[in-house]
């Protein structure tokens, strides 16, 4: 509560991970130790940003690569709510736009366009997109021999020395 009260006391705004940690380091040692040892310590280490709209503080938590969780805490009423990504983004937009009052917001769903796109499943693939795609395409090419014919035709068509 001491940490969230400090953050909420800063007023409306966005705090990045390093700013949240700096606020954490400003609270008394005994409170800090209790937070570090508990479940909140793990949440704090994984928090990427905090959105402050008093009396609410919303947290974007990334417990592991590719996984995001959102929650908000009413510092005065001590109420915790889990948020869906759209709710978190709406809350974040209120910083700029104020309350939306039920206005319609354009939402685009690009998921149908990425349905057949390969997704990295290993943590080591994150940040190595080109290498991941090269391995995926190579495996696909050599797994299905029929897929080599279009490649061969492409190379024949665009060959400079006519060796193919």
TrEMBL record:
Keyword match Glycosyltransferase: yes
Higher taxonomy: Eukaryota, Viridiplantae, Streptophyta, Embryophyta, Tracheophyta
A GO biological process held by the record: sucrose metabolic process
InterPro entries: Sucrose_synthase_pln/cyn, SUS_EPBD, SUS_N
Protein name: sucrose synthase
Residues in Sucrose synthase EPBD domain copies: 128-162
Enzyme Commission number(s): 2.4.1.13
One Gene Ontology term of the molecular function aspect: sucrose synthase activity
Catalytic activity: an NDP-alpha-D-glucose + D-fructose = a ribonucleoside 5'-diphosphate + sucrose + H(+)
Keywords in alphabetical order: Glycosyltransferase, Transferase
Top-level lineage group: Eukaryota
Sucrose synthase N-terminal domain sequence ranges: 2-93
Signal peptide (UniProt feature, chain positions): none
UniProt enzyme class: transferase
